């Protein structure tokens, strides 16, 4: 192999290293999206008390996100490990989701409504998930843009 070819192949390898590192980093991070709102017609009162008629007047907007050990019926909500507040941004992080077994699996809970968890829409996430960060951007909880990034 000539000296020029050897130098070219080294340059090519050095140029590829940052690309491979970026690909590995993006492969480890997974975005999860909660629906921004639950439509009005998705919400029902199936068995109202006798003599009463139920009506859902409006859709419910996503208000917060949390992590849980097990399905939502267990209400095993995990306390975040870190909360960072900036001017119009708040980051809430669960940094060690591999701390012991999660009976029933690891779950993410999307909370809707004006109160504290009026409606919870949740789903099980991969058992390999090691940490998650939820970022709230905006000036008002009613208008937050919420992003979720999890790593494993």
From TrEMBL:
Database matches in InterPro entries: STY0301-like (IPR049973)
Keywords, ordered alphabetically: Signal
Signal peptide boundaries: 1-27
Taxonomy, superkingdom: Bacteria
Protein name: Uncharacterized protein
